[in-house]
Amino acid sequence: MSQATELLRKLCCVSAVCALLLMAGVATAQDGAPAKSAAEVVKPHAYVSLDPVPRGKEFQVAVVLEISSGFHMNSHKPSDSYLIATNLTPQLPAGVTMVGDITYPAGKNEKFPFSPDKPLNVYTGSVTLHMKLAAGDSTAIGTTTIPMSLRYQACNTNACLPPVKIPVTAELTVAAAGAKSKAVHPELFAASK
């Protein structure tokens, strides 16, 4: 076999494999299997309850998770121990302390084709996590951030994406003790008081 013929045969094989992969990718997206990366499925947004936050004052942070349509994620208390729970881990700046535990909403029990007999406790749509915090006397005055890590596993009705950790950041302004502040985003915090 000549070099030109061998090269042409290899090129045809590579083209055929590429076409099959492309068709598989289109079929995957059309069949409802995960077409997104795990980090794209959930969009988190963090909100602080006071502006500014005076030293010595308690405040809250709400993390709103917008889950893409057609996807779900296990709740904070999943149905089975082997399932990946949704978990938020804050890295509090110096002087800021946690007041109690993070509040996670209850999930909804839903059945899926891959688990027809046992419903799974999941989050879908939009869910809000709450943290109660306090700014101590030593908290630095000015703008500060609270970095957080959100761990979850997103699935659709056919398959699950690998678990991921994505960053979330809450930004707040700390003021001197006794400074005037106003409540912001009351719609997110009214039910958590």
List key phrases describing it.
193 residues, alpha+beta, Immunoglobulin-like, 2 domains, 4-stranded mixed beta sheet, 3 helices
Give a short synopsis of this structure.
This protein is an alpha+beta fold. It is 19% helix and 42% strand. The protein folds into two domains: 1-31; 34-192, Sandwich (Immunoglobulin-like), CATH 2.60.40.
Helix-strand blueprint:
Layout: H1 3-30, H2 38-41, E1 42-48, E2 50-51, E3 53-54, E4 58-67, E5 72-74, E6 87-90, E7 96-98, E8 108-112, E9 115-123, E10 126-135, E11 142-152, E12 154-155, E13 164-175, E14 182-183, H3 186-189
Parallel strand pairs: 3-13
Antiparallel strand pairs: 1-4, 2-14, 4-10, 5-9, 5-12, 6-11, 7-10, 8-9, 11-13
Please mark out the parts with pLDDT under 50 across 5 or more consecutive residues, or reply none: 7-34
The CATH class of the largest domain turns out to be Mainly Beta
Number of domains: 2
End-to-end separation in angstroms reads: 79 Å
Q: In what order do the strands lie side by side in the largest sheet?
A: 1-4-10-7
Most strands sheet: 4 strands, antiparallel
Describe the structure.
It is elongated, with a radius of gyration of 23 Å. 19% of the residues lie in helices and 42% in strands. The protein is built from three helices and 14 strands. The chain is α+β, with helices and mostly antiparallel strands and 193 residues long. It has two domains: 1-31; 34-192, Thiol:disulfide interchange protein DsbD, N-terminal domain (Immunoglobulin-like), CATH 2.60.40. The strands form four sheets. A four-stranded antiparallel sheet has the order 1-4-10-7.
